Amino acid sequence: xxxxxxxxxxxxxxxxxxxxxxxxxxxxxxxxxxxxxxxxxxxxxxxxxxxxxxxxxxxxxxxxxxxxxxxxxxxxxxxxxxxxxxxxxxxxxxxxxxxxxxxxxxxxxxxxxxxxxxxxxxxxxxxxxxxxxxxxxxxxxxxxxxxxxxxxxxxxxxxxxxxxxxxxxxxxxxxxxxxxxxxxxxxxxxxxxxxxxxxxxxxxxxxxxxxxxxxxxxxxxxxxxxxxxxxxxxxxxxxxxxxxxxxxxxxxxxxxxxxxxxxxxxxxxxxxxxxxxxxxxxxxxxxxxxxxxxxxxxxxxxxxxxxxxxxxxxxxxxxxxxxxxxxxxxxxxxxxxxxxxxxxxxxx
Length: 348
Description:
mainly alpha, 3-stranded antiparallel beta sheet, elongated
């Protein structure tokens, strides 16, 4: 298991490196961004910082052979500041060097001009994680419970009712569900119709979690219900369960000691996979409900007429790393849950 874990971590690192490298070159191939700020000092400070980091060339005289400068700044003192874009390959090596030596991922151009891009993302990361973790904590027990009920009551009206509701709600995306919830629980009810400000009342902040958590939980509950029902029905019809009954175990004993235990082997690791699915799906939901998380920032940085590439890169890195780490934990969890499928065991 240790050897396998080290191998997976190395492969995850290589995968993240390749994904972020491709993303960097694709982003840098787009039209260059400009800083959006009414203060010329902020604009000048951003370009000067980017020149120090190795992304631009800077001089107070035009540089021959580099074409048109990306930005010229004149404060009225007779001195003109010229900034030129370096070749993409030079920028790439500067980007790698700045991350490794300074942990500097660049500065924002639109979201918060001249602020650290990684600070902007990390500042909003707790909100995204809290909404998604609460959603998973609520949806997993409910989904497992409904799945067990449907599996044990197979082909009864209870099973048919649960299965029908699951098929209906699992087909509706979370961003559609939240629109209905905002209308009925927000405008027609007493819950906030959008995420409150930072200085809002704590009670209002707590109430603001209800609508987005419910919107994210609907699909997860339905997914777990269907998955648990299918696994439990398969186990219930297995030969070893019939053997347990013939040895004298009651139906309830056979279900609790064997059926549920074996059905949960593929279910428990899927909780991590479900978290990643919810985490990715909350991107649009955060924009609709104006949740100040990294999903909302990603949409804002991407949809601007003048995209914020540095914030976009850090956001992409977070989603990539979280997904890869969850995949590693997911694979390792199989071995801890069921020793029969542990990796790296020597053949006896």
